[in-house]
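Hi F.,

I've been meaning to write this up properly since the lab meeting, where we talked about keeping a consistent format for the predictions we share between groups. The idea is simple: the sequence comes first, exactly as it goes in, then the structure tokens exactly as they come out, then a line or two of notes. No screenshots and no reformatting. I'm using this chain as the first example so we have something concrete to point to.
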Amino acid sequence: MLFKFEKIAYSNSEIEAKGRQDGANGIPALDDTDPTPYEIELLQANRQMAGKVVEVCQPRLEKIEGEIAQWKQHAIGFLDEIQHIKDQHRAEIEHCNNDPILKHAEQEKEIAERAYLNKYNQLNRKPLLYIPLWAYLIFAMLIGIGEVPLNALVFNIFGENQIMTWVMSAIIGLCIPLTAHFTGIKVREHGEGFSWANAIKAAFVFIIVVIALFALAIMRQEYLGLLKDDIGLDDRVVDVSFMFFWLNIAVFVSAILVAYLAHDPVPGYAQLYRDNENAKKELKKAQNDHRNEIIAIEDKKIQRTKSANQQKADAEKTIHRLEAEFDACLKAGREQEERWQHQLGTDIACYRRENLLARKKSEEGKRPKSFKHGLKFKRRLPLIAVKTEMGLLQEENPRSDSEQTVDSGVDAGE
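Output, unedited:
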């Protein structure tokens, strides 16, 4: 129990005796409107005991009320935090949706797709590529790498220094794939008809390369024929050296054929197709990155919101607990004040009853004017505590000595 109810130091016998004594002495007079000194003494004694209740209850109520206000401010702060999370989430989503990388990928895909579809609608077919680009590049690189040591072996016959030998071998090893690439493209690219210009270009390059390789083979064979006795070669070996020419021709023609099969008859059509496919891949990658970023933003919002809501819920639980504690303390204080108020009414009724019975016969049946009204003292605890929209506790009646006066509920005739 918050309070211990104790009877004040006025027993019923004492009050009855005092009532009879004052009644026999004509106190109060019939015309008196003020309470007797003893009634005032009883009033002050009961008010003093009620004041002790307030002294215990009031600081505790104020402390709890302050804590409730603080926790409600915390709860409002968590609401602000949740709103801040929503605003930040909205800004991050907007920033993510305006990602320049994604927009650039969308624009590039749109441009590439438009260019490819325009050509596709004209030709009504996809590019005719018998060999994929990656296989063609690997084959061309292997030809270039294979040509270098092959030509180095041939040039070593001339007895030049190693640096010049490898330089010349590298030049020829580079020229064979490049000229084969050019020739294969010109043979392949005729559009939807036949291009004499491309055919002439291809034939011209092919003839020049064959003549150069033939001249190199003749020069090599003649050189070996002149030095065959000095280096110990017979005529059969000298004749066989011409086979290097046919080997180079075979490599050259193979490279032309591969270049032919790796390109479309319409110039640039295959590149439009590859550009479109690459743009699709880049857009898909940008969309995946965008989706992952959106997921990360949503997860962050969920986690932060969950944490803020949990803190808000904890604050509300604390507020409810404190409100229950506040109500319990207030109720207990009000009950004690009510008990002292009732005690005052009981004491006054006992006093007045004995007072009237002890009066002179001349005053029988008559009651002093002061007995027509009950004695009152002011309650200092609020009648009720109400919550405003802001969540702060306010009193319906101010807690001060200027509160409404509460009647003891006892009349002289009770």
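Notes:
Residues 128-265 form one domain.
Residues 219 and 293 are 68 Å apart (CA to CA).

If this format works for you, I'll send the rest the same way.

G.
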